[in-house]
Amino acid sequence: MDILLKTKSFLSNDLISKILDSFFGKASQLIFTMVFSFVCARLYGAEVFGQYTYGFTLVSLLMFLAKAGMDNGLIYYIPKDGYKYVSFSFVAVTLLATLIITIASFIVDEHYVRLMMPLVLFLSLEQMFFSVYRANGNIKKYYFINGFLSISIRIMLIVIFYLTFEGHQNVNSVIISLYVSFVIVTIVYFRNSRNTFSKVTYSKEFLLYSLPLFVSSVMGVVLDRIDIIMLGNMVSKKEVGIFQISVQIANITSILLFIMNTVLAPKISELYHSGKLEDLKNIYIKSTRMLGIISLFATIVLCLLRKYLLLIFGYEMINGQTALVLRAIGQFINAAVGSVWLVLSMTGKPKIQMYANLFACIFNITLNMILIPIYGIDGAAFASMISIGVVSVFGYVVVNRYFQVKPYKIF
């Protein structure tokens, strides 16, 4: 409580307001996502839910290729140059997404995955809008669209399809619900952000800065999601569905880190560009201490209640108990070190994260190849825990030495 009071006294009222908006927005998004997973898994079964998870994970990986780091580039440049590169980044992302969709459609074998490929464009545009909303401070509005409106539409549609086509439900019903929701919210995003678009301004500097952020983002999502792709190819789609539920529950441990990063990214960039490094370091120290305490409490609760939390999604999901614990521990380490990679990327040093994530990905894939055939989803969860833990601790050490800060006195 003392740490929370000190943090509140330090941070500006505006920043506190944005953190609260991000907290309630992300919490509502998480709740609605869990409700969607619950409804989908309960109505359609672990097999169909696993197919959806596998396909959507692959689409998400390709989305990170399409946005090419330009979403984080916007967060870095908007506090500095305003909306100068917004139009250019959206055009570039649209062209890249179209190219990726075309190529992937010829490579992918599974019919339902090919049907999901155009979602790469919608997901990429959504992430670009997320960056604009973050830079503008309109976090509450974004989460209303992304967390409430979009997922509510999906839930409503999969229930309608289930009742309408009883006995003939398959993954196509889930895919249709995704398309409808993405089309609607993309129109809403454009209407709300039309004042940020102007003439297309090409910038080599913008692209070069975004490049290492692009590699870091791709490696980061590969590190977080490659286990699902490998499980989908090495075991069954049912195991993928069980693993996905365990991952979603375990990620509650690090939800506050995502919330902090959402708000602090433009703030850190602003402080860095204005030369207020002491304020930047103080924000990092206080937010890291708070993250460490809250994430530790969340990890303990999740580990103690793991069986009962998984039973909510169906009896067959209790096979994910060990995976849930391992993933939760990994996410605890990730949250406890604070916004280390955000600090580096928003202060002109994105290449460090790029190299660290590249190493972690190679390490994680190697462990998955060894452990999944032997231990299944538990092996994938252990590989993820070790890889995330190693790269998080490395980032913590780098930030501590580079900025001469030490959030935890003993380390």
Descriptive account of the structure:
The protein contains 17 helices and no strands. Mean pLDDT is 82; it is low at 7-12. It is mostly helical. Helices cover 84% and strands 0% of the residues.
Main features:
411 residues; mainly alpha
Strand and helix map with partners:
Blueprint: H1 2-10, H2 13-67, H3 70-81, H4 86-107, H5 111-116, H6 119-136, H7 139-164, H8 171-193, H9 204-234, H10 237-250, H11 255-273, H12 277-304, H13 306-311, H14 321-336, H15 340-345, H16 350-375, H17 377-403
Helix pairs in contact: 1-12, 2-4, 2-6, 2-7, 2-9, 2-10, 2-11, 3-6, 3-9, 3-11, 4-6, 6-8, 7-8, 9-10, 9-16, 9-17, 10-14, 11-12, 12-14, 14-17, 16-17
In short:
It contains 17 helices and no strands. With 411 residues, it is mainly alpha-helical.
- How many helical stretches? 17
Instruction: Calculate the mean pLDDT score and round it.
Output: 82
What's the total count of β strands? 0
The major sheet is characterized as: none
Helical content (DSSP H or I, runs of 4+): over 70%
- What is the count of distinct domains? 1
Oligomer: single chain
Residue stretches low in confidence (pLDDT < 50, at least 5 long) are 7-12
Distance between the termini: 22 Å
The computed structural class is: mainly alpha
Q: Give helix and strand order, one letter per element, not per position.
A: HHHHHHHHHHHHHHHHH
Return Rg in Å. 21 Å
Q: What is the overall shape?
A: globular
